[in-house]
Amino acid sequence: MRDQWSDQLSDYLDDELGRPEREALDAHLTGCVSCRVLLEELRRVHARAGMLRDEPPDRDLWPGISRKIAPAQARRALVFSVPQLLAAGVALMLVSGGTAWLAGRRGAPVVGPSAMLATPASKGEASYAAAIAQLEAALDAGRTSSALDSTTVRALEHSLATIDSAIQDARQALAADPASAYLNHHLADTMRRKLELLRQASALATART
Amino acid sequence: MLAVLAVFAFGQQTDTTVTVPPGTRLEVTNPSGNIVVKAWTQKNVRVHADHEAADLVQVTLEGTVLRVKTASRRTSPREVNYIISAPAGMALSLTGVKTDIDVDGSQAPVTIETVNGEVNCRGGSGLVSLKSVDGEIALQQAKGRIEISTVNDDISATDVSGELSASTVSGDIELRNVESASVEASTVSGEVTYAGSISDGGRYHFATHNGDVTFAVPEKANATISISTFNGDLDASFPVNVAGASKHRFTFSIGVATGRAARVEIETFNGDIKLRRPSELDEDDNE
Amino acid sequence: MTELSPGVGVETDAETADVALAASGDGRAFERLYRAHVGRIHSLARRMAGPEVADDLTQDVFVRAWDKLGTFRGEAAFGSWLYRLAVNLILGKRQTRNSERVHFDAGASLETAPAMATEPELTLDFEDAIARLPDGARQVFVLHDVAGYKHEEIAALLGIVPGTSKSQLHHARMALRGYLER
Predict the structure, then answer these.
(1) So where are chain B's domains?
(2) From CA C80, how far away is CA C75, in angstroms rounded?
């Protein structure tokens, strides 16, 4: 059964009709049994959809996923992590995306600057430097082998210099205010952008060799 | 005889029209030159290319993919300039290196990737992904899930709707007349300008290191706005009541701060944050 | 952001910690996140794209989530963020898959959906019936009635206008009426 009234029933159910249309359909429903029945069926379809159960796959997909993320896992272990601190019972973590929200959300106390500059930060910075060095080496190889033309190299170098300058700004600011969640987050974001740019550049270099 | 040889030595055109089944996708690979794709009302695809005689244009239909590719007897081809007419509903995948790429009138998914080249796209629907390294990207009249990324140049998106992310390193980002509940725009050295919707429940994130962020706030918006800056000022053309403040970050609400309010995050390091009404943005432009 | 159905988007402290750990490279933390969310993601993939490709799509979703964890800022629950990523990926794959084409015209196929079979072993249940819907109607139905997206968002995701989304939803619901009791 399809007519002007029945075609509007889903919109009616979802409150998508404008007021005049809704009132007109209300009036029609008062006198039309078949539309009322249809509306109830549509309501049940909608409700049934909301009750669908989520089932896991028949086989465990984790091994396949684990294989694909394994190289990135090794790289991420090398990537800097902004100063992390796991206090007993309270997780205060500032990771590469910047999760300072976590502290605010939980009302966790901000740990003092000396703790935040302890070993994890130094380790993170050293690992970041190692990752940067690897990628810069790949980019150099592409550059010297002429895999990248001079215009592209200049563009990439210009943007890398831009990011390095931003990293320096952030580090200087952080040196004066090491407990600042905002500055830690900003430095982390900028360092991550450098890594992304170097990955992109080395991918270009290797793609064209 | 000598004139004829000159023509073949210094220039050649390929012009071919291919009948394609519905649902065919167009893939063009051109390392150097231009790719222009224009939508037309016909159901077939016309490929016109200007190139040197030593370079070849290969047009092959493999299943539901029409592949157009530049091949060459040289180690690297010279510039080839393509002008392709294709149905508006045909999905496009256009790739180059030293290639400018231009699309006009598409109503289908568009994926563009170049290295040294500008991208201009008018149209696009569904997934619209535009990438360059050293080249400006301009997008108009697209809808869907939009991803724009370059490294060393500007980005502009106008009259677009859907999820939007725009990223560059050295360049400005300008987003105008955007209808979206999810916008992410970030640069390192450059300005960010946003003049678009602020939808209930939406998420908006704008970030730069060196540069101003200009954000147009419609009169009836409901939003919680968080601003972080190290060395910049907040310059608002209307009153704001700061709700929470720390050394470099403060938060305020506009409109009715309900659970459905949009969340806006604006970050700059050396740069101001300018909040304006949309009409004032036009005035600022004219100054 | 569309509010999802109750139960979705509720995040425990343990999960919050796992997200942070995974973002810094802890594969075991990411596995815990996988185990907690794979049912929902696989069901979404199965309903949107079909059982034949659901396993591959689910794997792709989690691999992409791993890559994108650095962009997760925590404004929404991790489950909501992951679900949205899955929707985007599944729809993106749809557009590059050669094997199917999305129909957004009101096809005769809905009107000629198989009549109810009398043999029990041939009877379709509600989930099977969803799978038998034409692509466009099925995706709109799953996004709207199962996942809770609004028509404006669905239209933007699928590259259609909201009116088409509403029309497809109605067709889907009409076709599914006969399978409610299964």
Answers:
(1) 154-287
(2) 10
